[in-house]
Amino acid sequence: MKILIVDDFSTMRRIIKNLLRDLGFNNTSEADDGNTALPMLKTGKFDFLITDWNMPGMQGIDLLRAVRADEELKTMPVLLVTAESKKEQIVAAAQAGVNGYIIKPFTAATLKEKIEKIFERIEASK
Amino acid sequence: MNIEMARELVTCLERGDRNGADEIISEISRIKNSELFQQIGKLTRDLHDVLKGFEIDSNRLSDIAVTGIPDAKERLNYVMKMTSDAATKTLESIEEAMPVCESNIADTKAMHDEWIRFVSREMTAAEFRTLSKKISAFLGSAKESNDKIKDKLNEILMAQGFQDLTGQILTRVIKLVQDVEDSLIKIIKISKSEELVPYAEKSAMELEGPQIAGKESASAVKSQDEVDDLLSSLGF
Lengths: 126, 236
Description:
Chain A has about 130 residues and is an alpha/beta fold.
């Protein structure tokens, strides 16, 4: 399982990376916005995307839409981890096809719970 | 003009004293003129004060624009750098301490499992000798590894100093913003009499970043639970 972590703040990427390692996901890569993330995703090496919303360059919601619009990537599970917490935004992310939505600041337990839930759903739908 | 002067004027006119009457009339108009001059003087002073105030405000504003804002930008960049450095330092220390902890946990668990076998007399003499060596080695290295963890915890502790320093810088920047606000409001009040109203409504989709306590948007959720409830209401 290879996971791409996208956030413009390196400390947040590092926190998520450490939390993921604690959950047993050792294979992670990082990108600092959608523009750098998308070509990385298109290499086909990733199984899971965790992205922030508000980033310079391409934002998380646009990255999500680009992923859903791409024939090769459209089934990839995407988890948004963001400080954006307005209902309109959560609904927009849901409509764009997000698999999970975590608001910052978050806990290790929340991240674990959402990731597990996403995988449970994927297993159930197989 | 008072009643005495009026009476005196009538008396002068009755006795045909033109010069006396003229004098009283000029005295009356002198009094009237001095009141008018006082009024004009007051208006001039008010106008002068307003213009001076305007000048002070616009000088203050240009001072803020020329030195204050660039200075504030530098300060805020410095705050960004300090918070970033502190977070990086903290994460580095955690990443260095974590493997030491993990290895301590694993070693302790392994030795404890074997110790239980020893206490339950399930261990051969040869196995016990191996365990004994392991315990010796572990105890020998325990101080070193705990010292390392303690060092890292101290580094994390020291890294929190950023809070104090950035707080002081932010307080100064907040003061500057307050000055700009005050000067702008005064200038707008001088040039306009209408109520100050915010220019435009925000779009619901505009990104806001973290909600600030006491300033939350009406449609912002308050917890992860609310996010989960909203998503589950949408069939997630």
